[in-house]
Write a structure and sequence with these properties.
Shape of chain A: globular
Helix content of chain A: over 70%
Largest sheet of chain A: none
Number of strands of chain A: 0
Oligomer: homotetramer
Radius of gyration of chain A: 18 Å
Low-confidence stretches of chain A: none
CATH class of one domain in chain A: Mainly Alpha
Chain lengths: ~200, ~200, ~200, ~200
DNA sequence: AATGAATGAGGTTTCATTCAT
DNA sequence: GATGAATGAAACCTCATTCAT
């Protein structure tokens, strides 16, 4: 989904936020549409008026998750920096963006294990194909900079795909354990991003 | 579950294997007890004869997942090696162990996002406390060696918890994407483990 | 609905046509108001603006079905013909009229099996009483001519009600199987009507 | 479905009877599975344990309806009678068989209007193909004897398909209006069958 | 040790209907 | 006259679980 996707209505957006939160808390499978509706202070009908199925709702949450990250990182891509610096900037953009929209990313990560749906409609399959494509496009941003670094001799020669997947999981690690806290130092997230960037770049060199 | 836990009967073990496989494929939530029974070529009764509930079955799958990794890595712990070498040996043991029992680990990873169960029995809570404890003990093995390395000046000074979580996700990354293939080179998994060990250690130095 | 009922507005008539078509295709129960609206290229609101409920819409479709047949056959009634000739003329009028407004009759036939509605409003009950009355009046046209023929000795003596019901189903049989086709001979429907008239009259003699 | 179909368990048969009755009374669409369960004095679960869906339940009711009629008429087929006599015997067998299993036939007749289901599974489509085939086979019994009679000059020359469909509706007409009554004369149904046979044969000659 | 029948709670989805605009 | 949002009741169906055998 490019930054030029059609604007989303206010009501739809509220529903997506609620769905992301509830799916994050209870798990996308265990959470019911009623749970989402209750969190919204509304009834199921409101949700089904905007989304044709639970799968579609989940899909749009995931699509937004991917879009949030993509939008944050995209501006860095075209800057003329050496690969290790560009990668650092990408991670410094990625981590705060992800933690700022944590519910969405807790949801999309649930879908990374290649679980097969029991039955899906053609519409839902199309939606999930779109998500896969978006995710692949996002990964390719990182793949390109790693490849560039390896060619330029700034990164160690090694299997590119393995390096890419490992690095992406490394920079997404906080999604698994981070919880925002009231007493959290202001600099916590930037520091975290910096440490992850250090580790990521070091892991390649 | 320590190496001295009571032996598991043949029938129970078969059921756990089937459950791990089905939970991996369909997701632990979406998979039904009937799905597991069908995969087993039997009926639900057989499963309920050995496990009191679906939660208990899932719990024992996770417990086994943790135990498989722990058993593989434990022997390395007491060897007198410098921290970076010990960590390398731990990872070289961890990765093949995990990929050799992949279904179990695909299942336990589903539980890593801090999802709150809607309601559970006291028995199941006890079981999951046990899993958490086992997992914590396993993480402590890595935490100790990283701390030792940082104290000895072999690893960069940085936030220990962040480093630990990031490193664990790095070495578990293949659980997300690895799929055994018939035409896979014999050395694929050891090579993968070696690359991950390189990346992990580099990320700390 | 007698030929002197109030005229129906253009918009109402369009809605009734769409409803008849959709109820025919999907079945009156399975079809939703949204299905009708979609067929109309509009939204539900348009329908609810003209009809107070789905039951009323269905009722008016049925009423029209009965009126179409009644209007076509009524002119024959007062002609001074011997019963078998009058019956023939009635059938020759009935069949093309019915097949010319097939969707309406496919709908009303769905209601002929004496199905009990689960719950209806007083308004709807009144509407359906009207349909029953209209239908009874229409049947009485045929009942009278059969009775006349039996009295005059032109038709075999037999149970009048059974003969009437059987004959009406015979002449409505095409509603079950007829489908208009582009390559249909011009004379198909008149020929069909003639054959049914032959069969019907023969069945009584 | 031939008389050699697999035997149906007691529980399944009870459910089918209840379903036929409820579908007849309320209409197959309007009746809910809960209605059927209530009529059985059981819960939905019992029904879903034996039938995978409402469509399948409805399908098996229709299949039984077709089988009841087929079984009653089949013995007549191979007797060496002149066509009009054979047709009379067929009708004399058909009518009591149908009225003796009226609920089933009130249900199957609902399906004769070519209504399109909104969505069906492959399984259900297969089931309904089977019903169509069974129905076609049954019609062919009548088609053959009519054709034979027309060839032998005992029946009037006319369009065979039209004659067949009309005649089948004629002999099924009581399904639309018949209701068993306590005070009904013992001979009512045989007399009815005789009158219908008379009308049917007369309609062809 | 295992099966098959049955239950009951809860989930997703549909849909007639209402209402503000 | 018509739309789009929203509701609430009821439908279909799933599934963990229990029980008699």
């Amino acid at each position: 989904m490019s930054p030029t996707s059609p604007p989303i209505s206010r009501s739809k957006s509220e529903i997506l936020d609620a769905a992301a939160h509830v799916f994050m808390t209870l798990g996308a499978d265990a959470a019911s549409i009623d749970d989402v509706a209750r969190h919204l202070g509304a009834t199921k009908g409101r949700i089904y008026h905007h989304f044709p199925s639970k799968g579609a709702l989940l899909g749009e949450v995931c699509l937004r998750a991917a879009a949030f990250a993509h939008e944050a990182v995209a501006p860095v891509i075209d800057t003329p920096l050496p690969p290790e610096d560009k990668l650092r900037q990408m991670i410094l953009a990625h981590v705060p963006a992800v933690l700022g929209t944590l519910p969405y990313h807790k949801v999309i990560i649930q879908s990374y294990l290649g679980i097969m749906q029991k039955s899906t409609t053609a519409q839902e399959r199309a939606l999930f194909d779109g998500i896969r494509a978006e995710r692949a496009a996002y990964q390719d941003l990182f793949r390109a900079v790693i490849a560039e670094g390896m060619e330029a001799g700034r990164f160690r020669q090694q299997n590119l795909s393995i390096a890419l997947q490992s690095l992406l999981l490394l920079v997404n690690a906080p999604v698994f354990w981070y919880q925002p806290r009231a007493d959290e130092p202001e600099e916590f997230i930037p520091d975290l991003a910096a440490q992850l960037a250090d580790m990521a770049i070091a892991s390649l060199t």
